[in-house]
Amino acid sequence: MFKNTDIQIITSVKKLLTEKKIKISVIPHENPDGDAIGSAVGVAEILMEFGHQVTIISPTDYPDFLKWFTSGAAILVVTNQKEQAKKAISESDILICVDFNEAKRAGKLEKKILELNKPKILIDHHPYPSDFCDYTISETGYSSTAELVFDVMQAIGLGSFITHKSAEALYTGILTDTGSFSHSTSDPNTFKVVSDLMKFGIEVDKIQSAVYHNFSADRMRLLGYCLNNKMVVFPELRSAMISISKKELEEFNFKTGDTEGFVNYPLSIANIVFSAIFIEREGMIKASFRSKGNFHVNHFSRDHFNGGGHRNAAGGETKTTLEETIEKFTQLLPGYRHQLLETII
């Protein structure tokens, strides 16, 4: 089942989570996406059903279209509830980190995580995890952390505590991280897990609608504006780019999550295999990269934009201006000409 995780780690995690009822904090990465918050809610619901006292602590807020879960888990957002969040972590017997491979991906919680002298468990599917947890379950072959959470819970004997609520959250994580099953689905185990989750009576049509058909009119106008005015296509390099300034976000009444998925749209253009989006935030530029075939955007992001991720989906950031970031990207592209032209899709 697990290719990279020693059985002793699974045994130790089982002992930690099943011997007695304790206080647990579950932390997703900052700016959590569907897989991060879905995994956090999923594991929290399972552990609560077992009898643990669980709090989810999100470093930053997450999109409205991911706030429909029918969950009883308390979710503290650090940017709004800093003191309560720190108190919850300090009082925890165990910390579980989901869907990130470095402590810095937890944003303002990084220091708190590193300083906490309690057992820490990592459940994640991103490559190259750093050694910041006591027990690392890192499986890059999984489509999503949510899929991995399901198998981990089964492996440690908590599968019987999965309910409709946790199944709903885990399915959402798998759905979003595979782009509605359009990528990262080469392993039959993904569909086996989905099949098992559906046995809990989750309504997949309603989940699809809640996640993908639940946006504001402002978000749709922003998307149209970006595609019409801000998308630059480099056909000779099979690449495309979108950039959005802080001022432009404000003009469209930007809310957290409004730009989710924008980076994928240029990949719909015939023969484009590499897409990037650069978004100006306070004091930094957030970058997201997507690709088709065997073009490794995680390597591109790691080498040039202080980031990482998966082969076909990665993120990063810079501390330069938006204009300087765009210039850097356009200057880097020709150096990847051979790889881009040779990419098979």
Briefly summarize what is shown:
The chain has 345 residues and is of the alpha/beta class.
Task: Explain what you see.
Helix 5 (145-155) crosses helix 6 (164-177) and helix 6 packs across helix 8 (204-212). The radius of gyration is 20 Å and the shape is globular. The strands form two sheets. The protein has a six-stranded parallel beta sheet, sandwiched between helices. A six-stranded mixed beta sheet has the order 7-8-9-10-12-11. The protein has two domains: 7-212, inorganic pyrophosphatase (n-terminal core); 217-342, Diaminopimelate Epimerase, Chain A, domain 1, CATH 3.10.310. The protein has helices at residues 7-18, 34-50, 82-90, 110-115, 145-155, 164-177, 188-198, 204-212, 217-230, 246-251, 297-304, 322-332, 337-342, and strands at residues 23-27, 53-58, 74-77, 94-98, 120-124, 135-138, 231-234, 239-244, 274-281, 284-291, 308-309, 313-318. It has 345 residues and is an alpha/beta fold.
How would you summarize the topology of this molecule?
Elements lengths: L6 H12 L4 E5 L6 H17 L2 E6 L15 E4 L4 H9 L3 E5 L11 H6 L4 E5 L10 E4 L6 H11 L8 H14 L10 H11 L5 H9 L4 H14 E4 L4 E6 L1 H6 L22 E8 L2 E8 L5 H8 L3 E2 L3 E6 L3 H11 L4 H6 L3
Parallel strand pairs: 1-2, 1-4, 2-3, 4-5, 5-6, 8-9
Antiparallel strand pairs: 7-8, 9-10, 10-12, 11-12
Order of helices and strands: HEHEEHEHEEHHHHHEEHEEHEEHH
Any idea of the CATH topology of the largest domain?
inorganic pyrophosphatase (n-terminal core)
CATH architecture name of the largest domain: Alpha-Beta Complex
What is the strand content?
A: 15-25%
